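TA notes, week 10

Several of you asked for a full example with nothing omitted. So below is the full record: structure tokens for the whole chain, then the designed sequence directly under it. When grading your own attempts, check the secondary structure regions first.
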């Protein structure tokens, strides 16, 4: 399998004294980097929440002084009162699924009498940390986080060190945290198995960035369907990378011009679905007559297409509401056991798989 493209999120330039990029206020991330410690250690020194032994404590204090972080940190160390607000950090608010998750969180927050403060990390782990710190500086009562690709442990450690309740949304972790996600692997397994039962053997997948947990799960569903059928996966049919519309269109266009092109394609997300359909249309490849297609996530208006995609549709708005429910529970019961919720995707059988639906249902 080819390696995911690493074309985005270049590291920000640092200035000479170890603080943030020019023009940006120094953050706990800058202090931790300069002192060569974790953000939670910096938090313990600033807030006195845990004893930090010498010489580490002195190193942190020197880094605080060198970066000019002291005044901002002291302001945040004031005793927390309820502000009736919660923070939400989304990895890509432009995607339809994430937009629906935001709506679900906002609806549930409003119903509970809370104000939602929203930030977008744009799949940048450094921007994610800055967004988390900015929301916490506004003393939100809790945080909901849809993690960026290659998100660092600090995104979880920093809220925990500050005593801020945290719920993970969409991109889950093995850590004991409250979290809500969708059964991605099982849904893609069903879609690929359906194509295999229709006789397709060369099934490509626009897998995208496999550093993203949900995309990795969807690719696992593809692999498992092939394994269950006793068939090998052809690595040349697995398209990885950043997974946006433009890159996907270019990769699929190249794939469809090969003499051994696939007979079917699986789109692992909405942007990759759009890129695939554009590539096929640009080359005059008809769906489903010349190419079967299925996708995880549907497009907002699939009925407007000549061959609406057969798809697994995640209950994104419900996932947002469920994340808010878990956060409210955590606020009411701080010592409750962590809960992981997995919601089932809904399979919608349409024309793009080419099996003459609804006479032949999905498996």
């Amino acid at each position: 399998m080819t390696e995911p493209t690493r074309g985005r999120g270049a590291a920000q330039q640092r200035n000479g004294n170890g603080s943030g990029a020019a023009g940006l206020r120094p953050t706990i991330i800058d202090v931790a980097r300069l002192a060569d410690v974790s953000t939670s250690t910096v938090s313990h020194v600033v807030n006195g929440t845990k004893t930090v032994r010498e010489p580490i404590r002195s190193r942190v204090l020197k880094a605080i002084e060198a970066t000019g972080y002291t005044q901002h940190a002291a302001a945040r160390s004031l005793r927390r009162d309820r502000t009736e607000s919660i923070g939400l950090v989304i990895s890509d608010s432009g995607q339809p699924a994430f937009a629906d998750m935001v709506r679900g969180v906002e609806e549930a927050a409003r119903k509970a009498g809370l104000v939602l403060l929203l930030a977008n990390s744009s799949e940048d782990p450094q921007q994610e940390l800055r967004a988390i710190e900015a929301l916490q500086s506004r003393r939100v009562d809790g945080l909901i986080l849809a993690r960026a690709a290659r998100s660092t442990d600090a995104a979880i450690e920093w809220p925990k060190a500050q005593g801020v309740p945290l719920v993970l949304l969409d991109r889950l972790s093995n850590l004991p945290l409250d979290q809500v996600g969708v059964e991605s692997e099982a849904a893609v397994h069903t879609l690929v198995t359906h194509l295999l039962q229709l006789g397709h053997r060369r099934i490509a997948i626009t897998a995208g960035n496999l550093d993203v947990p949900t995309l990795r799960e969807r690719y696992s569903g593809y692999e498992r369907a092939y394994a269950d059928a006793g068939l090998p996966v052809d690595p040349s049919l697995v398209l990885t990378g950043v997974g946006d519309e433009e890159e996907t269109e270019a990769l699929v266009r190249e794939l469809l011009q090969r003499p051994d092109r696939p007979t079917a394609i699986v789109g692992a997300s909405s942007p990759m679905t759009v890129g695939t359909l554009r590539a096929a249309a640009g080359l005059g490849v008809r769906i489903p007559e010349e190419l079967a297609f299925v996708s995880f996530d549907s497009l907002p208006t699939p009925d407007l297409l000549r061959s609406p995609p057969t798809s697994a549709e995640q209950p994104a708005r419900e996932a947002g509401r469920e994340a808010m429910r878990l956060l409210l529970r955590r606020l009411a019961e701080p010592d409750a056991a962590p809960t992981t919720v997995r919601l089932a995707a809904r399979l919608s059988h349409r024309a793009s798989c080419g099996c003459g639906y609804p006479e032949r249902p999905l498996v």
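Residues 184-315 form a domain with the Rossmann fold fold (CATH 3.40.50.2300). Use that as a sanity check on your answer.
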